[in-house]
Amino acid sequence: MLSERQGNILASIVREHTATAVPVGSTQLAKKYHPEISPATIRNEMGKLEKDGFIIKPHISSGRVPSDKGYRYFVDKSLKTKELSQDDQKRLQVELLKTKTQNVRLSCTLAKMLSATSHCMAISGVVGKKEFFDFGMHTLLEDPEFNELDDISKIFASLDLIDERAEELLAQLEDGETKIFIGKENPIKEIQKCSMIIAPYRSASGERGILAIVGPKRMHYGKNKTLIDFVKNIFGEKDKTMIAFVVSFPFSQTINF
Q: How far apart are CA 209 and CA 53, in angstroms?
């Protein structure tokens, strides 16, 4: 268990790395987040965090970045969620109401809607029909975590086969929970460099579906969980089993962190 100060420093490292995508140093933390603590004291606490596996040093002379363990602690202890803006809520509700009686268009509309709201890549489809649509794919190529061709290929390959893995993912969830998988916790081994927020929902007719957000481990967990939960609640009113995946990128989120 971390001390309160260590937990606060870890949370600051997560937030700063989320915003900048670069390793975080003690002087940077002292100036921006903890002016009441000296850089030397922060360095000492960071040393303890590194020793205990909550942060790692990617290069000899660099600052630190959160490890999977560090992100997990942050998500479990420090995660804060906020409501979607009224404008986003209205836009989501209106778009779904427009397509309520147009089941063929619902998957396509959903992907467009999620992409427009999150400025992310979005994929959606009807599980039974195995009919999927995607939008915003270009955002994947803009994120520094995914500049290796091999990583991009693995992500695309896993998403191409998502219709075959829907039941496998549903088996990971219980009691309608929204679950966050970080790095190697990810049940889809091809994307274990990513984190995934995933939730099941049950339609008015009793059928099950899933919603998920997949992105860098430094994704905005609070923002993306809020979006998943909101859309999940809307889906509960529908009469078709849907599956929707959003590949998210932290520089383009629209919900307050």
A: 36
Per-residue pLDDT at 128 exceeds 70: yes
Instruction: Name the range with the highest mean pLDDT among 71-80, 129-138, 196-205, 239-248.
Output: 71-80
CA distance 117 to 149: 27
Two tokens at 257?
């962190």
C-beta separation of 118 from 227 below 8 A: yes
Decide: residue 201, CB within 10 A, 0-12 exposed, 13-18 middle, 19+ buried. buried
Tokens of 99: 């397509």
End-to-end CA distance of the chain: 25
Task: Report yes or no: 166 and 210 within 8 Å, Cβ to Cβ.
Answer: yes
Strands, DSSP E only, in 54-153?
A: 55-56, 65-66, 121-126, 131-135
pLDDT for 236 equals 60
What lies within 8 Å, CB to CB, of 122 at 6+ separation is 110, 111, 112, 113, 114, 115, 134, 135, 136, 244, 245, 246, 247
pLDDT value of residue 50? 97
Query: Is there a contact between 217 and 66 (Cβ–Cβ < 8 Å)?
Result: yes
CB under 8 Å to 94, separation ≥6 — which residues?
none
pTM: 0.84
Tokens matching residue 10: 């870890």
**pLDDT, averaged across the chain:** 81
**Whole-angstrom Cα distance, residue 76 to residue 2?**
12
Q: Which of 6-20, 54-68, 208-222 has the lowest mean pLDDT?
A: 208-222
